[in-house]
What does this fold into?
Amino acid sequence: MTFSVAVSGASGYAGGEILRLLAAHPDVEIRTVTAHSNAGQPLVAHQPHLRSLAHLTLQDTTPEVLAGHDIVFLALPHGQSGQYTDALGDTPLVIDAGADHRLTSSAEWDAFYGGAFHEPWTYGVPELLVGAGKQREALRSATRIAAPGCNASTVSLSLAPGVAAGVIDPGDIVSVLAVGPSGAGKSLKTNLLASEILGSANPYAVGGTHRHIPEIRQALAAARPSRGSGPSTGSGPSTGSGTQGSGSGAQDIRISFTPVLVPMSRGILATSTAPIVEGVSDAEIRQAWESAYGDETFVQLLPEGSFPRTADVLGANTALIGLAIDRAANRVTVVAAVDNLVKGTAGAAVQSMNIALGLPETRALSVNGVAP
It folds into this structure.
């Protein structure tokens, strides 16, 4: 069976990467691509690298244009997907690459995003630990999927094994990320101009203000075996204290999160540390990550003493993880590298789509990067 696909936001970075992956997918047909200000123009005028899709013209992003497909991908700015999702009730599978359906707490949405709150959907990080299982189990029956924030999924995948195994204390997490500007989208912004970022490293969203923080807390809370109810289902917004994933333990997960913009077009290198729980051995710490990812294709733990580079995951749907145990500081250090546009966004969306449709999970996705 061939599934018909529409991709909104097709002139942007995330939309373009979704299209690049789907163009090589044998089970889908890309029928419709949409945009806002670029509607009416050829797709290749904005995605000139997508030569196999040169026949497509960008249409207006409206519910009517998006309706009538088997699968709809929404690659729109945060806060814009929700206006379309209610109108796509008859679409068998909808995947949102924005933030509109990620959070379970309306209070956290108000605090970090603002605007209308929409019901949470099944979270699109298949390898993420959720209680005693993994997120892919929830994706097998999903019809509405929220693709992750790239920074959020990178940090969550980095630390979830330690939280799930109880070998690290999630009450004192510190994460510093080197990120490429493509994660900020394609719209013109002064701080993203080449003359502003070349030869410089610039921190942003400093002091607990980054929008991916509640998403990380939600995911790590769900990793706890006795509290695994966070992002795994789309059962509706939480109520109560207003903390992320209320009732799932997110209130005692504390993270200092600092992203730094660096002059590489794409990629994330996330360095995260957390205290070691008293009495835990080095072998038990490493075993937590080996058990979590030993059988995974796209999340790979590197040998002891090895650490990843962003260059090694460019173009791949791979998260490479290096683990160090710092006994002098009594902390675990995890270094993770992903391509923010692939494993961080589009690759996670396509991987989740494959699972939801009952297709091989790796279809149209590669573990191999591009070098040099």
Notes: The two ends are 38 Å apart (CA to CA). The chain has a mean pLDDT of 92. The chain has ten helices and 16 strands. The first helix runs from residue 13 to 22.
